[in-house]
Amino acid sequence: MHCREGRAAARAERDSLGRVTEHASTAFERGTDGPKVILAGVDGSESSLRAAAYAAGLARRQNALLALVYVQPVMAAGASLGAPVAEATGEIAEEIVAEIRASAERLKGIFEVRWQFHTFRGDPYAGLVSAADELKADAVVVGASERAGHRLVGSVAVRLVKAGRWPVTVVP
Predict the structure, then answer these.
(1) For strand 139-143 and strand 37-41, is the pairing parallel, antiparallel, or unpaired?
(2) Which end of the chain is less enclosed by CB atoms within 10 A, N or C?
(3) Mean of the pLDDT values across residues 81-99?
(4) Pairwise CA distance, residues 34 & 138, whole Å
(5) 59 by DSSP, 3-state: which?
């Protein structure tokens, strides 16, 4: 009998007039039952591929969807000079997805994870933010920048962390 009363007391409380009220939250809270979507930013660099592998492990353990996102940079200067920029970035996206498919095939039966590949166009930071919003990501995983200039200006990873909208993991 005490157990039942104890449980009821934990769910119920008295308001200022002495009435018993129960609290049951029906509102959706992102990430409260573990992540459902883990987004990993990939660009073909070694650190981004390590980030994708780390995110795949998280997704497998959490039974979450792994959303791999490549943001095709828009190079206005090259495009204005007539360079086939869209073709080049499209080829990079095709190479990345082919590498991911090959890795997934090698691990089939050993390491199962649900995944999707998405491409967006634009600035890498803005593209990852748009992707995370559109895909309702619960967590974002990116590789550490390999460019020296980003220590001064700030990398995509640092900007994502500063945005404070999702848990962000930066993989070296």
Answers:
(1) parallel
(2) N
(3) 67
(4) 8
(5) helix
Distance separating alpha carbons of residues 48 and 143, to the nearest angstrom: 4
pLDDT band with cut points at 50, 70 and 90 for residue 30:
low
Closest CA to 169 of 50, 65, 19, 73: 50
Q: Are strands 12-14 and 20-22 parallel, antiparallel or unpaired?
A: antiparallel
Under DSSP, is residue 80 helix (H, G, I), strand (E, B) or coil?
helix
- Residue 99, classed as helix, strand or coil, is helix
Give the DSSP letter of residue 3. H
Provide the residue type at 64 as one letter. Answer: A
Instruction: Sketch the domain layout of the chain as residue ranges.
Output: 33-171
Hey, is 168 helix, strand or coil? strand
Fold type of domain 33-171: Rossmann fold (3.40.50)
